[in-house]
Amino acid sequence: xxxxxxxxxxxxxxxxxxxxxxxxxxxxxxxxxxxxxxxxxxxxxxxxxxxxxxxxxxxxxxxxxxxxxxxxxxxxxxxxxxxxxxxxxxxxxxxxxxxxxxxxxxxxxxxxxxxxxxxxxxxxxxxxxxxxxxxxxxxxxxxxxxxxxxxxxxxxxxxxxxxxxxxxxxxxxxxxxxxxxxxxxx
Length: 186
Prior knowledge:
Mean pLDDT: 80
Number of helices: 8
Radius of gyration: 18 Å
Order of helices and strands: HHHHHHHH
Helix content: over 70%
Distance between the termini: 41 Å
Largest sheet: none
Shape: elongated
């Protein structure tokens, strides 16, 4: 799914080697763009955020540790960049995210898939940005709890609490959206 962090020469990255940085960019920019699009709900803004993320990463490379793990490090920069932009611009965030709810519409038709995506977007817009980011990074992007702690800058105990609360908040918001859709569609 993504390149292994072991495929990069971290010492070359720390020296800001252009070819190694270009490899890093092409390996992770598409996934970061998709993540940031989900986080902010705007493809153009996400593209700008990806560029800003890599500019910040390039500038920070000389100060990184020799045991740098590029993927979680880049996602941390991207998440912080998006949160900073959201605070400055007061973006409304919409994050498409699937849930294993038994009351999901039949996904076999385009209309039902579209309706479900819309319900998910509305449900995620209704929960805290920190909750949405944690859900997205863990379940959609596949980061481990340890990696999430590093990305989000929280302890494992706090992360587990945040994920529990995020799932609970998302489920409640999703069920509310499903009820609204059912009333509107009846």
